[in-house]
């Protein structure tokens, strides 16, 4: 049977009881709509026996849904009163499942160890750090096989963008180093309290079975950063700093089979990996 989720009345009561006022700096917009939680859970496509990592559980809207759908939930929350309250909320609304929840009071950007290897990431991410958190977790926890995150809609578009698209950029390439990324829907503002100024998007990712290439990730990412730092420049010019000089960049690009007159926004992650491989062969 479907278990009750937190609606506007419960969320407000919890916030009042804790004496908290949602803060913008921590991206605190709490979901007050059970249907949105059900949508997120369905889009996450959790299998049997999953250990789900949730970042920013807040007052627990999504956490309760995850407790119903997962074997274990590890929730990382930076705000102490919220982290302290969450186990009590789980006890109150999911007494028979509360022991599946582990709460860690920490900045998700700094998490290095978790009590269990997470198989999935399901989160309504704090908007101001959504991309760095996602990339950090994908890099740090290879056990994360798939996930569904809610982010600002423009960030969702950017993460899922293909080469040549206007919004294709650093987040698109770096995310696709790890995973296949797709946009899985749009969420209106009114499902949150307080309502944010802009709509949200759902992003689904599935980790690649095979790495893109056998090459140092940091060398690839440095080339990506350089290519997009000067978006309007040719790769030969934009990668001059990365390669040591424009001439060296030109040679590396030629060796990688990529036109030095091309722009970075046209290249996919495989092409960036080839550039890094050629750079490594040239001694970078
Ligand atoms: N999951 C809840 C929901 O859907 O109602 C809350 C989502 S709210 C958009 C983002 C949450 O992330 C807040 O609870 C905030 O305190 C927390 N947060 C912000 N920055 C964080 C960070 N660096 N690490 C962990 N949690 C963070």
UniProtKB/TrEMBL annotation:
Pfam families: RrnaAD (PF00398). S-adenosyl-L-methionine binds at residues 29, 31, 56, 77, 107, 124. Its main location: cytoplasm. It is found in: Cytoplasm. Residues 36-209 form the Ribosomal RNA adenine methylase transferase N-terminal domain. GO terms for molecular function: 16S rRNA (adenine(1518)-N(6)/adenine(1519)-N(6))-dimethyltransferase activity; RNA binding. InterPro entries: KsgA/Erm, rRNA_Ade_diMease-like_C, rRNA_Ade_Mease_Trfase_CS, rRNA_Ade_methylase_Trfase_N, rRNA_adenine_dimethylase, SAM-dependent_MTases_sf. Keywords: Cytoplasm, Methyltransferase, RNA-binding, rRNA processing, S-adenosyl-L-methionine, Transferase. Transmembrane segments: none annotated. It is an enzyme of class 2 (transferase). It catalyses: adenosine(1518)/adenosine(1519) in 16S rRNA + 4 S-adenosyl-L-methionine = N(6)-dimethyladenosine(1518)/N(6)-dimethyladenosine(1519) in 16S rRNA + 4 S-adenosyl-L-homocysteine + 4 H(+). Its EC number is 2.1.1.182. It comes from the Bacteria. One of its GO terms (cellular component) is cytosol. SMART domains: rADc. NCBIfam families: ksgA (TIGR00755). HAMAP family: 16SrRNA_methyltr_A. Specifically dimethylates two adjacent adenosines (A1518 and A1519) in the loop of a conserved hairpin near the 3'-end of 16S rRNA in the 30S particle. May play a critical role in biogenesis of 30S subunits. PANTHER family: DIMETHYLADENOSINE TRANSFERASE, DIMETHYLADENOSINE TRANSFERASE-RELATED. Belongs to the class I-like SAM-binding methyltransferase superfamily. rRNA adenine N(6)-methyltransferase family. RsmA subfamily. This is Ribosomal RNA small subunit methyltransferase A. It comes from Kocuria dechangensis. The lineage of its organism: Bacteria, Bacillati, Actinomycetota, Actinomycetes, Micrococcales.
């Amino acid at each position: 049977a479907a278990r009750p989720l937190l609606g506007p009345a419960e969320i407000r009561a919890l916030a009042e009881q804790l004496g908290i006022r949602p803060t913008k700096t921590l991206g605190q917009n709490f979901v007050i709509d059970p249907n949105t939680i059900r949508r997120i859970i369905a889009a996450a496509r959790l299998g049997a026996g999953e250990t789900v990592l949730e970042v920013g559980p807040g007052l627990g809207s999504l956490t309760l849904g995850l407790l119903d759908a997962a074997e274990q939930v590890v929730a990382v929350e930076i705000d102490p009163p919220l982290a302290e309250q969450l186990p009590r909320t789980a006890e109150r609304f999911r007494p028979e499942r509360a022991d599946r929840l582990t709460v860690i009071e920490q900045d998700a950007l700094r998490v290095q160890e978790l009590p269990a290897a997470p198989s999935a990431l399901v989160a309504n991410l704090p908007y101001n750090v959504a991309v760095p958190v996602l990339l950090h977790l994908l890099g740090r926890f290879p056990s994360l096989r798939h996930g569904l995150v809610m982010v600002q809609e423009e960030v969702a578009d950017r993460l899922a963008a293909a080469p040549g698209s206007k919004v294709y950029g650093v987040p698109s390439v770096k995310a696709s180093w790890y995973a296949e990324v797709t946009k899985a829907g749009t969420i209106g503002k009114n499902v949150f309290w307080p309502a944010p100024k802009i709509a949200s998007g759902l992003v689904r990712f599935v980790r690649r079975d095979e790495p893109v290439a056998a090459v140092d990730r940091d060398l690839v990412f440095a080339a990506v950063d350089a290519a997009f730092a000067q978006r309007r420049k040719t790769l030969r010019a934009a990668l001059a700093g990365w390669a040591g000089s424009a001439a060296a960049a030109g040679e590396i690009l030629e060796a990688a089979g990529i036109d030095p007159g091309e722009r970075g926004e046209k290249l996919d992650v495989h092409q960036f990996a080839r550039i890094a491989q050629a750079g490594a062969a040239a001694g970078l």
